[in-house]
Each structure stands twice: as C-alpha cells, then as structure tokens.
C-alpha cells in the first residue's frame, strides 16, 4: 500500500504536467539511426510521409524487423505517448520497401530465448480514478509484454507504467528463474524518469508452459533526502529468500518539519505452488 504522501506527490505531478505543451518525445521512443528495431503493435501503418493523414503504403505485423533510416523532427502525441516519426526500411515479399512509422508503435525492448521472441512496448493511455486519494482522475500508461513463436502471438500480459514523466528510460532483461518451481524464464521490464520525484516501475513476469504471468508490480520514487518509497521482490535464490515463495518488501521515509526522519516498512510473503501464487 502506497502512503498518502507518495500518492499526493505523484498526483500533483500528473495534474501540472498535463497543462504543458509537449514538443519533445519520450526518451523511451528515441531510436538510433541505422539500427534494427521491431514492430510492437498490431498492424502498424506505414505512411508515405510523417503524418497521420499521409497516404498509407503498407501495414506491418507485430515482431516485423525494420531498419531505422532517419528520425524525422515531426512529433506526434497520443495520450501520454509522445514520439517522433521515423523513416524506415523493411523486407517484404523479397522486396526492400521504405516509409514512415510513428515511434510509439515500436518495441522499447525485445529479447530472444529458446526459440521465443519476447517484446516490450507501451500500448495506450487510460484515465483511471485513484481510489487511494479521493478518486482523483490520473492518466495512466499501459505497457505490455508479448511472446511470439514462429511469428505467432502465443501470449500477452499488460501492466501499468505511470505517467509520461516515467517514460524517459526503459530496460528489458531475461533473468534467471530465481529457483521458482516450473518457471522457464523470468522477464523484467523497467521504465523510469530522470528527475527527483518521478516514479520508476519494475515489472517481473514469469514464463512457463508458453504462458506469461505478471507478479506484483514495484514502484520506487524519491526526492533527494526529503522522502523515498522503495519496493522490491526477494526470490528464493536471494540471501533472504524462502523456498517456493517470494517476498514483497516495502520501505519508505519522509522528513517532518523538524528535519526528523520518519520511516516505516512492511513485507508480505507470496507462496508459489509451481503454477500460481497466493498471499500467505
């Protein structure tokens, strides 16, 4: 449970930032020229020019590999996703074709393991009422991890990634299975901001029997030595881990008007039976 001061702080950031005009792209959608990339969304449109009203030349399916040729200066904002257009090339039916694609439709991370392609991207923005703080309406980005086998989508799992301020940096890794029974792979997706007071989000996803399973999401935020809120998962192979379970741990600190630190922490244990988890 996030504390009241954390919810208030993040909500105020979202309210004030919504009043600004955006002329720049989210950092996670900054792609290098002359580098390969992959399509994340379903049937991404390829345009003749960097504009949603330009003629459509083609459409590309999830996991299609492309080459980034050039970043165009045109920026498009859809919800909280803000990205440049990119001129790209790709191979289709033995031909090399070119066109423009909006950067928000591309993967922000992808990995291949054991014949599976794992893709990480941001899909949309929704308006959500925060029940922990007077039902205030906040904009929430939704991300997803997809797993493909032989060009076919076999599973997908979605999760929250905060507001646009948290979309400055992304990381997507395949980790060990942390010694959880019957788990083939553990995926970790991260998005974060670059300034104090901007939340970062870590999402662990288990892959087993061709299915993805999201674990409780982690949120971390802080502002110098004024306050912090930290969350982590402790797995069986960690020093403080427990067999056939994982631990959610939270710690936070805030300084009062007299510069005195007030700390609190909590933890909860989730039992893992090889198929699913439940709170102990």
UniProtKB/TrEMBL annotation:
Residues of the SH3b domain: 32-110
Keyword Signal: yes
UniProt keyword annotation of Secreted present: no
Keywords annotated in UniProt: Signal
Signal sequence annotation: 1-18
Protein name, UniProt field: SH3b domain-containing protein
Organism: Chryseobacterium potabilaquae
Lineage: Bacteria, Pseudomonadati, Bacteroidota, Flavobacteriia, Flavobacteriales
